[in-house]
Design brief:
- This protein is an alpha/beta fold.
- It has a single domain, classed as L-arginine/glycine Amidinotransferase, Chain A (5-stranded Propeller), CATH 3.75.10.10.
- Helix content is 24%, strand content 28%.
- The protein has 10 helices and 21 strands.
- The strands form 6 sheets. Strands 1-16-17-12 form a 4-stranded mixed β-sheet, with no helix packed on it.
- Strand 13 and strand 14 form a beta hairpin.
- The termini are far apart.
Amino acid sequence: MHSFSFTWLFKRVIIFFGILAIAQSCVEPIQDPVPSFSNADFDPQEATMVCWNFQYQEIIGSLVAGISQKDNIILFYNENYHQKKQIEALLSQKNTNLKNVEFFPFKLKGDNIWIRDFGPAFTQNQKGEIETVAFEYPHHEFTDYKNFAPFFSSKMKIPFYKSALFSVGGGREVNGKGTIILIEGFEKIINPHLTKEQIEAEYRKIFHQTNFIWLKKGIPQDDFLGYGPIVDDIYGFGTNWHVDEFCRFANPKTILLAQVDPKDMKRDNFYKIIHERLEENFKILSKARDQDGKPFTIIRVPQAPVIYANGKIDSKPIVYTPVTSYLNFILTNNYVVIPAYYQKGDPEYIRRKDQEARKIFASVFNTREVKSINSSELNYKGGGLHCITLPKPKKR
């Protein structure tokens, strides 16, 4: 069992309380006669963008090495902390195809790897014209990273719009055709002075979304630690409900949703709480319609094994649950990279879960090769594989 001490609560996973009121004005986007929608993860990509960090060099290095065999990588590194030559040397040891890796230096305060949340949000119209949106970034530890998206867009010479809305990539899921899935509890906690209607209005205006699906809550492992224990002395250790931990689009008409195995509920009562949350979301998604008024196909994916870890809050011992999930996966042009959890000595049912997940992903993404990476180290920090990557779309 992992052990961790929280000397203070407000690291990556506890970032939302005390946020200042949102500014009322936003940049008005140009009225483009050609419909423009935010790009989905399954759309053709120019490259997968990743931020380097020595603390997670094993996971990031394995990820970059694997993807670079067939696809492009844009590897950002903060010059305040890293040097290109050192990174290249480490990647070479993993047989990385460096010809497919573009190094991109930047300078900001803090060494932040969660590019899915602070990176630019891409939109593109049928003419292939790409723009980005820079949302406000609700992270008190890395306030300087709200400047990353404008910096990137300027360097790449991509037009961008600045929104006063607080939003992160892991908190929203789009199908690339105008439908967006949001979680009410998350959106309201980072935008406390806005109504759902006002939040929708901003996503319509600047992010070109036309159809909204609102879920109530995420899985309990992703509960905000400051809410207190979920049950007994077990705390969630998440970001207050990111949708990419349990619900993802596989294509414009297909949704992947986690599901608890009945055998797990017999093993551990905590799975019953996960089951209740997921089935509430299943009911909402079953009734939901896409931007054309048609129902979605919903494919269930196993809920990853729950991990328990020891921690402390103000010297008080607690047990917390890192957010484990097979839905926190990565799509590139040629690969689908999913988390794996089985390690030598673990119970056999964990191996079976990994195998079942691989089988489902291989079937759903049958034009891509399935790769697996143990991402539990990221889970212990409140994130996962999807959280440390961001696709740069290919121009149509």
